[in-house]
Amino acid sequence: MPEEDSELTKHAQPFHVANAVQLVLSSIVVLWSLFFAYLLCITKVYHRNLQLLLVNLPFTYALTCFCHMVSNLITILNGSEVIVGVVSNIMCTGLFASALNIFLILLERSIASFLARSYEMMDQGFPILVCTFINIQFLACVLSGVMSSFHLISNQLLVLISLFLNIVAFVGFALIPAKAYRQYITSSRNLSSHTLSERYQLAENYKSARLLNRVVLVICVTTFMATVVYYVGHFVIDLNKIDQRIMDFLFIITLFVQAIGIPVVIAALSKKFRDKCCVTFCGKTARVEHAVHIRNLKGNDLVVDVHRQRDVYFTEYQNAWR
This protein's superkingdom (predicted)? Predict the structure, then answer.
């Protein structure tokens, strides 16, 4: 349209600046997501199944932002609209993959909660459960991408499914910590009816639930905002080119906040994760402590002498095996 083109020419400089900023942010998200996946692999501070699903998560962000970056480059270079459409299909598939990954983490944590008696011993060799989940995610994304390319399913429907999965995951992770805490307290009060492995798994479930409750809050809020922005900008309102670029800018900003925010939240809440990163990258060694600062499950801070802690630990360890 002549009016739209003249308006775009009038705002050419801000338009190119916005494109450049989006390219930089997309590149940062891709590189940071891959670096975060590397951190999760080398730290190994969570249950292996949970860790593999968390490692899989940054790759979905990297895929989405890489497609966004390619789309911007094609737009800047006045490339084919057909290629832009294909890239948009892949980007919608990336949004769907991110939401599906969060839902699979919820499913894995639910299985860990219901099968606490045997979950710690499951998949000691090959992680069959989580590999099955990842294969399901991969096949669902490939199938949805192919169907979208042949117009058998709309990108609009994929985005709506992504929104629904985010809402389900948010509600599910809001309920899991309370259930995990009740299970752990019950096992602590009935030591004879719960094995040591089961009590350990219940304690790990509760710690993971508290961490994931905050991490998933960041993930769901930012993914929900990004998906809503994408949905409104592409399917609800007929925008001109300038308004479309503004919506794309808001979209990549939310993904940028998400990609940076998740590692920050995990590092802030997990001392073990911070220590592993310090040892790996800073060469930090463990310090000799004369007192141990312990936070119990109710959140109270306790200061215990090291020798007393050692005696209590070995006494309780012996009692557990009797």
Answer: Eukaryota
Q: Give the residue ranges of DSSP H helices in the chain.
A: 2-10, 12-43, 48-76, 81-114, 116-119, 128-149, 155-189, 196-231, 241-269, 271-282, 306-320
CB atoms within 10 A of CB 260: 17
pLDDT in tens, 251-306: 888 888 888 888 888 888 877 778 777 777 776 555 555 555 555 555 555 555 55
State the fold for domain 2-286: Rhopdopsin 7-helix transmembrane proteins (1.20.1070)
Calpha distance 38→60 (Å, rounded): 14
Q: Tokens at residue 186, please?
A: 């019950």
How big is the CA angle at 260 (ends 43 and 231), to the nearest 5 degrees?
A: 125
Residue 41 to residue 280: CA distance in whole angstroms: 12
Please, are residues 263 and 273 in contact by the beta-carbon 8 Å criterion?
no
Tokens standing for residue 21: 């900023």
Closest CA to 116 of 192, 187, 171: 187
Residue 193 DSSP label = G
Domain span(s) for CATH 1.20.1070.10 in the chain: 2-286
57-93 pLDDT, tens per residue?
888 878 877 877 777 777 667 666 667 667 777 777 7
Count CB atoms within 10 A of the CB of residue 48.
Answer: 14
DSSP assignment letter at 260: H
Least confident among 6-10, 40-44, 60-64? 6-10
Q: 84 exposed, middle or buried (CB, 10 Å; 0-12, 13-18, 19+)?
A: middle
Q: Which residue has the higher pLDDT, 191 or 99?
A: 99
